[in-house]
Amino acid sequence: MFPATHVYVIERLVPSAGPLHRLGAVFPDAVLTNGLPWARTHRSGAGLYAFLAQEAPEALPFAVGVISHGCLPPGLDYYTDEQYGTGQKGYAFQQAEPYAARVARICRLPAAMGLWKAHNFVEMAVEWLIVQQNPGLGERIREAFQDVSLLVTLADPLGRYYECDGEALVHSLPAMLPFLALEQANPQVLAERYQRQVQLKHGVEAIELREAAGLIEEIAVAIQPGCWTFLEDVLGRIGDTLRQEGWL
Questions:
Q1: N-to-C CA span, the chain
Q2: Which ranges of the chain does DSSP label H, i.e. alpha helix?
Q3: Which of 37, 186, 225, 228 has its CA at 20 to 30 Å from residue 57's CA atom?
Q4: Which 3 state secondary structure label does DSSP give 2?
Q5: Distance between CA atoms of 97 and 103, rounded to whole angstroms?
Q6: What rounded mean pLDDT belongs to the chain?
Q7: How does pLDDT run across 212-244, given as a tens digit for each residue?
Q8: Taking the mean position of all CA atoms in its chain, how far away is CA 177?
Q9: Which of 155, 150, 141, 148 lies closest to 184, judged by CA?
């Protein structure tokens, strides 16, 4: 999912969530700007929690956010990307199948990449719906990104855990800002920010922005009310995991 949706989830799971929770909930997707392998950030939550419990307990809320986001243990992206219900794929991939060919054309990418990119369009549709109902999410994410004291607190322990330059790692979070639609997460801005990702990752000069925005709107209509049922279901599942493991 996209950042506001991840922050919505951690704030639902932890009603007293603060900036460290929010940074952790977004951090796994900073692979866009820090070069860590996707699996390293999406499958490291439990190990990170154990490490921080010993080395930097003040940073444990960050690890809770990472766990809520990831795939192992099962967080939101597990149910979105990997497996949900009786399907062989996650929720966003299941919903994306009818749009794969259109998205490949819109993004000017090979047909084989259509489903992967279409699942991002489902995620953007969910993001838009979430932000409409929770308009302060984007501002809270930006404030967390710009909290220099928190980044300083995280730099040393994260650098040691991920075995890299900790200062560069934590600054990969605010480096995401040009790629994110925060305070104005409407279909047009989401499509424009997504174009920047496609340009960065695939060298595409431009996507079909008007069609992209229109498709985000179309999907947002099509996935309701089921997307809300999905979110409530996985909130319950993730919350159960956090409580059973003593992370919440």
A1: 22
A2: 3-13, 19-26, 31-34, 38-42, 45-55, 60-69, 76-77, 91-96, 100-107, 114-133, 137-145, 148-162, 166-171, 187-202, 209-222, 226-244
A3: 37
A4: coil
A5: 10
A6: 97
A7: 999 999 999 999 999 999 999 999 999 999 999
A8: 13
A9: 141
